[in-house]
């Protein structure tokens, strides 16, 4: 399934003991359609509380009593309007939404003028910034790096190496958007990158500080995490 959702009212993707989650809502909807089945939904990633998705992929093994289109319609009929299944399709048995993925794409949205209408989907850009410094930081990310400095300290992964396929900033009259695509992402990584690049662009940190953080060298600068509500998972890629 390809899923989009407004993360504002969720405690993230992954099912938790307390709090509404995207995975939990979809699994509950599937249990209504398939009451005799043990439902386990596998997501391509675990977005945090408040983070949104335009194209998160998930897979689940189900009996074939419904066609893909019938399943999609049934699910959407049982889900609240802040989640929607945009596509459902049959895949090979060895497909895994997370481990079969070859790349993921995110964007982080800043808005130049605060709006109560978009406050849950953008972060207000409060300072004058140097766009050239943002561009320089984004270019430094290209290629393979150890992102130990730019992830949650307790992240439980074997290594923290990620390969960045592209990283850039787009500007319009109203918004400033950070775009990034990589083979994998660590917890909070995009938010730390966006927030810390902004600190460079507003003059609190230097490019040298950013380079030191990227190379995990000792520096007085510390990473800054941008708020969750400006982040969108755009797309998950497969071969």
Distance between the termini: 16 Å
The largest sheet is: 10 strands, mixed
How many strand elements?
10
| Class from secondary-structure proportions | alpha+beta
CATH superfamily of the largest domain: Pseudouridine synthase I, catalytic domain, C-terminal subdomain
Oligomer: single chain
Helix and strand run: EHEEHEEEHEEEHHE
Shape type: globular
Assigned CATH architecture of the largest domain: 2-Layer Sandwich
Strand percentage: 25-35%
Q: Please name the CATH topology of the largest domain.
A: Alpha-Beta Plaits
Overall average pLDDT: 96
Low-confidence residue ranges:
none
Number of domains: 2
- Just give the CATH class of the largest domain: Alpha Beta
User: Number of DSSP helices?
Assistant: 5
Roughly how many Å is the radius of gyration?
19 Å
- How much helix, percentage-wise, in residues? 10-25%
